Amino acid sequence: MGETDDTQAIIQKALEGNQIAFSTLLDTFWNGVYGFQLKRTENENDAEDITIQTFSKAFDKLQSYDPSYGFKTWLITISKNIHVDLVRKRKRNLETDGNQEAVKKVLDDAPSAEDQLINEQNLAKLLLHIKKLKPHYQEIINLRYFKELSYAEIANELNEPVNNVKVKLLRAKKLLAEVINGEQ
Question: Dihedrals φ, ψ of 96, to 5°?
């Protein structure tokens, strides 16, 4: 999909707090950012982490996005910076706490189509589906749907910024919905 007025319209909706718009941005641009980082890092886990952090940061700073740049270009730039920071951090090898400014509430808690789909699954079957996801996606689905923790509680449990949790959960729900739909 080209960077059209469509993308700008979706970004506008996201700025107004529309959860589906965030989901759409994630779905549309995930593979581009992930693919770019996979080439750079040659490591699936790093690529995935960086992509999650990229969307987390992008959603947090969405109001500062300048539409005269392509949205994908902007995302790639953010992801490059995150990668450079990661490499630096590893060189220093210091466990410094990533001091994130207060994270705005990116997503409302309205159930999405994926939530409906997940909720309608028979539990035993759902657990089988969940097992097909990567461990860190399994964990976040478990914390959210089975332990029913809030975003803040999950962030605390995983020791990650709330925005990362939200992006990871969006991604996990999308992957789980794909697994469920693939089985039907």
Answer: -90, 145
Residues with Cβ within 8 Å of 102's Cβ and at least 6 positions away in sequence, in order, are none
User: Considering only CA atoms, which of 183, 182, 158 is closest in space to residue 52?
Assistant: 158
Separation of alpha carbons 66 and 78, rounded Å: 13
Confidence of residue 145 (pLDDT cuts 50, 70, 90): confident
> Lowest-confidence range among 47-51, 55-59, 100-104, 119-123?
100-104
- Radius of gyration over every alpha carbon of the chain, rounded to an integer in angstroms: 16
Give the whole-angstrom CA distance, residue 3 versus residue 23: 17
SS3 content of the chain, % helix, strand, coil (to 5): 75, 0, 25
For 1-5, 72-76, 133-137, 144-148, which range has the lowest pLDDT when averaged over its residues? 1-5
Instruction: Extract long-range pairs of 83-91: CB within 8 Å, 24+ residues apart.
Output: 83/37, 83/40, 83/41, 83/46, 83/50, 86/46, 86/49, 86/50
Residue 127 has pLDDT above 70, yes or no: yes
Contacts 24+ apart (CB under 8 A), 75-80: 75/29, 75/32, 75/33, 76/32, 76/33, 76/36, 78/54, 79/33, 79/36, 79/37, 79/50, 79/51, 79/53, 79/54
- Amino acid identity, position 160: E
